[in-house]
Amino acid sequence: MNRPRSRRALLASVVTTAAVATGGFEHVSNTANRPPLESGSVPADWYDCRSVTRPEPRLSTDDNALEFRTYPSLPSGSGSKEAGDSSDRSPPPSLVDSAAEYVTEFERAYRQNAFIVQFGNETRTFDLRRSDHRTAAIGSSTNADAVMVAIRYDLTLGTQQSAVDPRDEWDVRVTYYIDENFVLRARYDGVAEDLSLEPDPRRQGELVACLS
Fold first, then answer.
1. Residue 116 near residue 68 (C-beta atoms within 8 A)
2. Alpha carbon of 25 to those of 122, 149, 185, 201: distances in Å?
């Protein structure tokens, strides 16, 4: 006689089925019909920098509310080279080595600013705690063309009404793509044990920063 499935296992199965049916990801549909990525890196003409999409809240008028968080800059030395420089234009080792920290700070700014956009002067508590990350260079590890980073984190949010009992989000997963031109972001909304580089922001992500 088979042992009945637990409620948690059944719920995970239902959520997983729904995630598979819907793709399980937040994504931007205008990337679906683009040509294959032969080199793995995103061509410079794929995105218009006027199409950057990220939360940009107004300044708070309440001293007790959370403040807008500035989006981080790339590590020193990882920007575009000077005009006339004919050497390979690729992220230096400093970007590959510090990509997880950069992505964590970017995601922290993204989520806090989104929280402020939604709740404005009511915001009181924000705490993002990264629990895991995974980084992969695109191209060779010593001369990468770009970097993919996946992070997993827990998040605590509280408003003026919920400051005593803030709301928690567990095991949030996002994937970022970074090269000399763009930062792309995609969020995973399914159920999975292992942290993977899915969804692929190059196909199912949104443009959140232009670097060139």
1. yes
2. 29, 16, 11, 10
What's the pLDDT tens digit per position in 72-102?
988 755 544 433 343 344 555 567 888 999 9
Q: Which amino acid is it at 47?
A: Y
Which amino acid is residue 14, in one-letter code?
V
**Band of residue 139 on the pLDDT scale cut at 50, 70, 90:** confident
The burial of 92, by beta-carbon neighbours within 10 Å (0-12 exposed, 13-18 middle, 19 or more buried), is given as: middle
What pLDDT sits at residue 35?
52
Max Cα-Cα span within the chain: 74
Task: Tell me the C-alpha distance between 3 and 18, whole Å.
Answer: 24
pTM of the model: 0.77
CB atoms within 10 A of CB 62: 12
DSSP 65-133: SPPPPPPPPPPTT-SPPPTT--S-----HHHHHHHHHHHHHHHHHHHHHHHHHHHGGGEEEEEEEEEEE
DSSP run (H or E) holding 144: strand 144-159
pLDDT in tens, 151-210: 999 999 999 887 667 889 999 999 999 998 999 999 998 877 899 999 999 999 999 999
**Other Cβ atoms closer than 10 A to 132:** 13
